[in-house]
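Q: How would the C-alpha cells look for this protein?
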Amino acid sequence: MMEHPLLEQLRREWPLETWRRHRTLVAVSGGADSVALLRGLVELGGTSEQLHLAHFDHRIRGEQSTEDASFVSDLSDRLEIPIDVESASLPASNESDARSQRYDFLVRSAYRNGCGYVATAHHRDDRIETTLHNIFRGSGLAGAATPRRYRPLDEDLVLVRPLLGCSRAEITDFLHQLAQPHQTDTSNWDTKYRRNYLRHQVLPELRNVYPNVDDSIHRFSELAEEAVELLHDLAAEYLERVAAADGRPAAGELSLVFPTLR
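A: Here is the predicted structure in C-alpha cell form.
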C-alpha cells in the first residue's frame, strides 16, 4: 500500500474500523476531489462490499455533464464498485435547488443500497473558502463552523467529510502519484460566482499580506465547530434539566436561556 498525506488524513479522520463495518455511499462528481476520495478509500481496502458510488447529473453544463457521467461510470467499472447515476428532470434554477436535488438523490441511493454513511470530498480549501464566504455574508458562529466533518442526513444516515484536513495541493499530488485522471469543471474559473471570486481574487491577495491566512482561517473554523458542538450539548443538557414532568419546559424557564443558546 502506498503512503501519502491524504491516506494518513483518511485514517485519522475516519478510522478504518468505523467505515469498513458499514456500507458507504461515495458521492463522485468526476472532479479531482471526489476521485481522490474514492481512490483513497480503495487504497485503504474498500471494495464493493463496503462501497457504492453515486453520481448526479444536474444537466447544467450540457455536454460536459454527459462526459462527467461517462467518466465516473467507466471508473466504477474499472474499480469494480457498483454505481447509481441519476439526472435531474429539469436543471435547477439556483445553487440551493441544485444542492437539494443532489442530496435528495444521495439519501435515496444510500437507503436503496443499504448504506449507513454518505461520504463527500469537501477538503481544507473548501472549508477556508466557505468560512470566509459566510463571514462576509454576516454569518454567526454556526456559519464559521461549516462544512462540518459529520452531520446527520436522516435518522439512520450520516454525512461524513473525511478530507476536510487535506489541501487541494495534496489531492492533486495524490492523483498524480496514482496517474489517475479526473474531470475538470471549467465553471470553477468563472469569477462571477462568489466562491470562485474568493478563491481566485480575494485569497491570493490576502496571502500576500498574511502568508499564514489559510492556516488561520482553517483553525478558526475548527474552533467554531468545537464551540457549536459544545453549545448544542449544553442546550440539550439545559432543556433536559428544566423539563417538567410532562416533557415540556417548565413555565418561564426558557426565558432565562442566554442568547447564544436561545
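The chain has a mean pLDDT of 89.

Strands lie at 24-27, 51-57, 83-87, 117-119, 150-154, 157-160.

Upvote if useful.
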